[in-house]
Design brief:
Elements lengths: L1 E8 L5 H17 L5 E7 L8 E11 L2 H13 L1 H14 L1 H7 L3 E7 L8 E6 L5 E5 L4 H49 L6 H13 L1
Antiparallel strand pairs: 1-3, 1-4, 2-3, 4-5, 5-6
Helix pairs in contact: 1-3
Length: 207
């Protein structure tokens, strides 16, 4: 998952108009394919003081770099999006905030692999901020994972059958060799007194 953050200051007298623009941003981004757009206002430490600093942070979530580039390309060609961006820049006096370093853009990438239903932290490339993201697996992801497990099980089963077949083949080759060895022993000449008896009979006949 990729995150983009836009941080800026909103004057007190323009917060109501800012809230209206934020709602329009959410609608337009959803129409352009980005349904994860949130805006937060920075407060005091530990949320205890209730102090409102006037600094807001937009958090836009993308699946990957390709998704982010697709949404940006759609924004450039969408008249309503361009009109809203121009209105927003005028509201916060974007050139002045950019010049004074009040407007900041951050890009974040998941630091850990995102597993189904697992909470992961994403570290900021331009800061120390951490964002907790929780993902829920889609039916397509679950089906793909089950298909991968079934494929691995099939490969393991085939490997086991191949190994058993190889052992059986080796055993089959060893058995004929043993039979041939036994047959060779049976056909070998037996040294006994048969030759001596033949010589004795021949001598008697001559006499």
């Amino acid at each position: 998952m990729l995150l983009q953050t836009n941080s800026y200051i909103v004057p007190k007298d323009k917060r109501a108009e800012h809230a209206r623009l934020v709602r329009r941003f959410r609608q337009i981004l959803g129409r352009l394919g980005c349904g994860q757009f949130d805006v937060y206002e920075q407060v005091g430490a530990n949320w205890g003081t209730g102090e409102r600093t006037g600094r807001f942070v937009q958090i836009i979530r993308f699946r990957d770099r390709k998704h982010q580039m697709g949404v940006q390309a759609a924004e450039r060609t969408d008249p309503a999006a361009q009109e809203l961006i121009a209105e927003f820049c005028q509201l916060i006096n974007f050139p002045y905030q950019q010049q004074q370093g009040l407007f900041a853009v951050g890009y974040y990438q998941s630091a850990l692999p995102i597993a189904p239903g697992r909470r992961t932290e994403t570290a900021g490339e331009y800061g120390d901020e951490e964002v907790i993201a929780e993902t829920v697996p889609s039916p397509a992801d679950v089906a793909a994972e089950q298909a991968g497990e079934a494929e691995q099980a099939g490969e393991a089963e085939q490997a086991g059958e191949a190994e058993q077949a190889g052992e059986a083949e080796q055993a089959g080759e060893a058995e004929p060799q043993a039979e041939e060895s036994d047959a060779a022993e049976d056909m070998a000449p037996v040294e006994d007194g048969s030759d001596e008896s033949a010589d004795t009979a021949s001598r008697r006949t001559e006499n």
